[in-house]
Amino acid sequence: MDKHVLLRDLDIPDIRELAVYQANDGYAAWRKALTGMKPDEVMGVVKDSGLRGRGGAGFPAGLKWSFLPKDIFPKYVVVNGDESEAGTFKDHQLIENNPHQVIEGVALCAYAVQAGTAYIYLRGEFYEPARPLQKAIDEAYAAGLLGQNILGSGYSLDIHIHLGAGAYICGEETALLESLEGKLGQPRLRPPFPAVQGLYAKPTVINNIETLANVPPIVLNGAQWYRQYGTEKSPGTKIFCVSGRVNRPGNYELPLGQYTIRQLIEMSGGTIDGCPVKGVLPAGSSAPILPVSALDTRLDYESVQAAGSILGSASFVILDDSVDIVWAARKMVRFFRHESCGKCTPCREGTFWALRLYDKIVGGHGSSHDIDMLADVANGMANKCFCLLGEFATSPILSTLKHFRPEYEQFVREHQNGLPNTYGDQLIRDHAISVAGGSVVEVAY
Amino acid sequence: MADLINLTIDGVPVAVPKGTVIVDAAKKIGNDIPVFCYHPKLKPVGMCRMCLVEVGTPQIDRNTRQPMLDAEGKPVIAWMPKLQTACTTPVSEGMSVRTNTRQVLEARNDMLEFLLTSHPLDCPVCDKGGECPLQNLTMAHGPGVSRFDYEAKQHNAKHVPLGDLIFLDRERCIQCSRCIRFQDEVADDHVLQFHERGRHMEIVTFSDPPFDSLFGGNTTDICPVGALTTADFHFKARPWELDNTPSVCMHCPAGCNISLNTRLETHTGGHEIKRVMPRQNEHVNEIWICDKGRYVHHFSRAEDRITRPLVRDARGNLSESTWEAALQLAADRMRGRKVGGIIGDRLPNEDAWLFGRMFREVLKSAAVVMSPAIPAAYADIARTYGVGKDTDFKQLGKGDVILLVNGDLEQCAPVWFLRLRQAVVDRGARLVVAHDRPTKMHRYAARIDKYELGRAAHWASEQAKPLAEEFKSARNLLIVFGDEKLSAEGARSLARSLANILVESEHAGKANSGLLPLYPHGNTQGVFDALPSGGAMPERVDVAWLVGVGENNALPQSAFTVVQELFLTELTKQADVVLPALSFAEREGTFTSADRRVQRFYRALPALGQAKPDWWIIQELAQRLGAKWSFQDAGQVFGDLAAQNAQYTGLSYELLSRVESQWPPVGRSDLYYGGTVYDNTGGVGARYAAGAERAGFMAAVEWLTPPEADIEALQHLPRVLYQDGELIRRSKVLAGHIQFNETEIARAAR
Fold it and tell me: Which of residues 327-356 of A touch B (CB under 8 A)?
């Protein structure tokens, strides 16, 4: 791939400036659509391109847009920039360094579905990257690219940024809508789906920031141009967020299906000190861990699924053999326990119970009975939760037990009778655990 | 019905209306799918995950578009890979559901095990213990032992006041959100909400004052655990110790069905009402009651109840006497003299009937009236043009019009507010409101008319013709009206104008159409029906005979006063003879609600002291004045009423105590589903036909020019539910909620 499609700031450092962006085909797709394309044509191009949602589920974007009823107004476009999955930082780079492409994508989507208002929902911690994005929006307004009667087309669009309050669940699209409406961030019952009754019970498109950043080049260059990248079922390029025990963590934009996980690790400079890889989390803490045997899996939706995990938002966390798998699993479970919204029973209670068991094990009081119980708790949750958060929470437990059960057994053997070794002490300091009365009590988080 | 959907549940076929969810379909064939968050009266949310079942739909051949059949010719079922929540999944044609597979049973066990990890299991000290869905479902579906680490039990606040009427036990709450959703969806008082997340999630009230609602008590009935308890019942008794007696609430015109839970108390030496619970009657109150109905009952065992007859002695003091002496004295003073009688509109039909007969046949006097007096000015119109016999609020919806005039529906008839609001908000009936000030119903109005204070009758007489024209196209027309701030003449004029709207828009005498008066109490219509028509009170009588009239009444001047009362009041202080009456809880009888449903209530408590039912006292006096009556019980009196009063023809105690199967099927055997509401064992009552229906034709009534609003009428304060009065003042929990006490009334009068 000679040039980036999304991370164009790597090729053109000042592309965040409107003038620079416009000098490099910026807003050309927007002008093209407004002056020469009907909304359905824009939707058609995106449909033909095969662009799949980059937020995690991989649902075809154009198809999603076409679900909106035509005759109900107002409609809304909501852009999911919650980017709350552990190890995901692609949207952050996009809005900070290439904000106009995001805005142009949002505008094209809004035009395609004939929405007059778009909300970009950013996680609360994004108050810094929200500034360049807001600056870019202001520039676009000033240049007549947003607002009333854009470029004399008669079409009007307003884009607002909304900062969340820091909840993982608000990356779930219906919880995001609740949050955007000012309510407690908890997922909604479906149906009705957001396409029919979304924001303020009106037809709503919800797409990830990266998904919409793909739209301007697709509209400008056509579906066939886009399909030169990627595979038949997973067309286009995707940003892979690589983190963990690698030398050069960061965002890597690659055509889908062209490279393997092993090559991705090589691109990221290999593991620190050249330690052997122990496992890979392809989509942060939500995805089942892949063992070393899966390193030659190709990087597209179908292949990763066939290997036993999910590509999701493609936030690859690389674990090498210096990582204690029980420690890593506990850390992820603790995250889910902290982020469980509490709406459904299995997630609310199951994440809590699972963490208790991990704390017991790492606190030096575990037995192999507790490892079995962990599996029981996770299986009690699996496939029974209200939304995917609870289902995701079972991934680190079940997948690490599946591939690394001997490590659990060993851990339990080596940390007997409540006598954690120095590693255990360190762990306890790190995570504000105190050992009290023979059992581990978490005091703060 | 055309829209029936056929499905099988564990192989048992069932047909249910389109849109029914699996839990309800299963309930219909006696398959109890366990639920916590689902409630048949609330919208499903699918939060508790207790109702997971296996669901399959017929596999469709892609080519023929027909269901595929197996070797035996049965449809091939495509089973969904995951368990589905039966409470959120609507049925579909040919659907197959499995509720007893290992996968389902394990899921139930899992959910209960999860729930119990954060539940205190303090059943021995929990008010809900014994009638607790969590307890029952755990016994039925849950694990026998806990695998959870006991030291990780949550410790949360156990006595959080949500307002002064409801307490929250945060440890027991299982976050089902039934209380929140009841307040949002049914009461439309958005006063509860979740706060925080995960295991820290808790119920909070954010209104000021906290839990500001007239319906909060219902949340304790539908709470599936002991998290919400009422200040009234908190730590008062165990559910299994309680006897329950069907009764009827008489504090507003709706006539809600209630159950009186009583227990033998050693410290009082007799039975006592421990709590008032709703009793299901889908015709009347469904499964709800308001907080006044729930908490006002303490008067039945108030400390100042009169237990013996009192007679004014030579020194001018009231002193205890015997029934014989007191009755003889009263009868002697009445004999041959001008007697004026007033009877309160909370008294049962039987009392009013004998009272009326006494004046008509024995005293041969027309000086007998009801207290308060104003409703008598229009109760005949309300009876003639009242709602049709087969009226069912549940059928009101799209195409129907509800006209609400001069009444705050929520304050005057709280449960009607719930039901008519749902007709408007959920089912699309058109609401037109006319009032001098905003009320809660104004929120849902399609049109609002405002008139000057006290000018309701003027508004109606001016608007009647255009409104009648407008409402001609309505499918049904329900007109709800109150007599707030009106004189008798004004109220009569208003009722006539409204009746004429019904006549001219051609809705009179039909089911789901008609007048619905917001009378002050639960038996205003019944007392009016039972008394002779045309009664009037002269300014001066020889003997005033006051039966259950309460306080603040316009009384005739008299040389001698006989009072039948529950308590020592300002009125009894001036009486010459005070005869102790039994409260509604200590006797039986019937009430007639404002929509003319006649309902039985039963005796829940033994008689207090020597007190007697009012009808008995009236009969004793009548006998001493020559009447040959010998009624042995209230049922015989009602038989006499039904035989002689045209409206009540055909009604009998047997008919009124008839029960019927109701949907949703709630009751004591399935607390998990409907809550702790009692099933109806006392009868659903019967409505007598409106005059217009009997007549079979409808003529307009004579228009009446409304009087110029007199200043006195304007001094009346708005009618509120917690209006100051003898009964509410004796409630141990509602006293702080009383509105418009004497000071406020005096201030308003200035």
Answer: 337-346, 348-353, 356
